[in-house]
Amino acid sequence: MLEKTVFVQELRDGMQVDAPFVVEVADLKEKRDGGKYIQLTVSDRTGRGACKVWGTPDYAGQIEEFYRAIAVGEVYRIWGYAKVYNGSCEVNVNDGIACFEAPLLSAEFDPSLFVYAPVDCADIRQRLGRMIAKIEDPDIQSLVVRVIDDTPGFLEAPAAKHHHHAYMGGLAEHTLETAEIALSLAATICRAEMDTDVLLAGSLLHDVGKAACFRRKGFSFVALPDYTLVGHTALGAAALLRHADGVDPSRFAHILHILMAHHGQYGEIQPRTPEAWTVHFADNASATLRAACDDAADLAPGEGRQGARTGKAVYRF
Description:
Blueprint: E1 16-30, E2 36-44, E3 47-53, H1 63-69, E4 75-85, E5 88-93, H2 121-132, H3 138-149, H4 170-188, H5 196-205, E6 214-217, E7 220-223, H6 226-229, H7 232-241, H8 249-260, H9 274-296, E8 304-306, E9 313-315
Parallel strand pairs: 3-5
Antiparallel strand pairs: 1-2, 1-4, 2-3, 4-5, 6-7, 8-9
Helix pairs in contact: 2-4, 3-5, 4-5, 4-9, 5-8, 5-9, 8-9
């Protein structure tokens, strides 16, 4: 069995790499000369990294075949070398392309070495419970509990494929952050007079549809077609509508509006109320700051680079 001797956070420029990693994302890309290569996101318990599979001239016509054979979520032998590109260390694979003919047997590996989950799920669950308890209207509080309880994977799923909270437990963590930020914003604005019960319910349920967009596979989660074909907002609205009974119609409609409008100016539905704008700003703050923090996490003082998650330049003083 191939031993796990190298971890993502240990990769350094010029390092020879020959170790198992989880393949979380696989994309077929085109080179400038018209050829193909495979762009991978690989992971283990220490985090995520980039891997580019170039192959060799002997495999030039088989790149797409290798790409289609890759099973996302499974463990593969990554055999290549590490190189810094645009400020980030990534693995490049040439001869090692043959290792992608089949995944390694996941049952032979200790899951604790491969599952990237920086979230304390038990703590997040307790803090979500305390946040829900702040809702004073028993009908609205019951609505939130029923929707979450009726959503498989809510506490385990990631919040996104790449950009923010893209790890096990990320959806619950992002939900908690959004609720905490929204409540803080509402308390900061003078004479806001917001409906905090509706605000909390909307923030706690704004991304509930994302749980239906991911499926556990191997040591990771993979996005389902519904992620792009339907969208998490529509799926979340459908989940919310199943539990409308017993809630004041006007306040329920307001919660639904918050869910539908949480993408702000980028969504089909624009926020029309202070509560909806507050959840949008809180959602965006949680997502953007998580991405920025993760992009800058391993920078040394005086270093900068183009952030893979934010898509923006990041720097550490």
